[in-house]
Amino acid sequence: GNSVTQMEGPVTLSEEAFLTINCTYTATGYPSLFWYVQYPGEGLQLLLKATKADDKGSNKGFEATYRKETTSFHLEKGSVQVSDSAVYFCALGDNFNKFYFGSGTKLNVKP
Amino acid sequence: NAGVMQNPRHLVRRRGQEARLRCSPMKGHSHVYWYRQLPEEGLKFMVYLQKENIIDESGMPKERFSAEFPKEGPSILRIQQVVRGDSAAYFCASSPPGGNTIYFGEGSWLTVV
Q: Are B31 and A89 an interchain contact pair (Cβ–Cβ within 8 Å)?
């Protein structure tokens, strides 16, 4: 079946540090992959997505590359800011309009 | 284009009462999803609906919970005889026909006292 596994948090970084949040998936077919971000007290916002192998999604300095050979979609940012503190969810969308979410990774960025 | 609209944003119910949560999808979207999030936890899928049809309710508790998405009007998640364990944030999301991306509302926070 389809599933998503992402690294457990919390992840604590200093401002301007490099960020990686690992995400791997198991899927049949040709899924789309997503990262969503959730700020306290709010809903999930789409951060970026990739719809096929080797696609790179990017937004607001965040990037993730759809790696079929390693079944991964790791989230990266070169220099994090305090305002990036949030919970990040990796997700998979299958060919039947069903979506599967990881458990979320909390990121704390300290000034 | 308005996003996914959920109401109420916050709802307090006493044990045994009913809770009704409403979700209006984005314009042009015909697929609606409901998720539950317990404090400090991830998202748990509950149900996936299209207009007048329940496509997948594998995440719905067998009792007290129901969902609908009528031909006209918002999708409704109904929880009967609420218990303290139902206290959570309930998120609705929608996607267009054939679309491969879902967009979330701001959530409805249910507190059972």
A: no
Q: How confident is the model over A60-95, as pLDDT tens digits? A: 999 999 999 999 999 999 999 999 999 999 999 988
Q: Check residue A95 and give its pLDDT.
A: 84
pLDDT (0 to 100) of residue B108: 97
| Neighbouring C-beta atoms of residue B78, cutoff 10 Å | 13
pLDDT higher than 70, residue B33: yes
Residues B25, B13: Cα–Cα separation, whole Å: 25
- Are B104 and A99 inside 8 Å of each other by CB? no
- Nearest by CB: A101 against B43, B103, B107: B43
* Residue in A with minimal Cα distance to B3: A45
Which one-letter DSSP state was computed for residue A16?
T
Q: Which residues does chain B have within 8 Å of residue A43's beta carbon, measured at their own beta carbons? A: 4, 6, 91, 104-107
Torsion sign across C-alpha atoms B25, B29, B30, B31? negative
* pLDDT value of residue B1: 52
DSSP conformation letters of chain B: ----EEE-SEEEE-TT--EEEEEEPPTT--EEEEEEE-TT--EEEEEEEETTEEEE-TTS-SSSEEEE--SSS-EEEEE-S--GGG-EEEEEEEE-TT----EE---EEEEE-
Distance between CA atoms of residues B54 and B27, nearest Å = 20
**B100 at interface of A, judged by CB pairs closer than 8 A:** yes
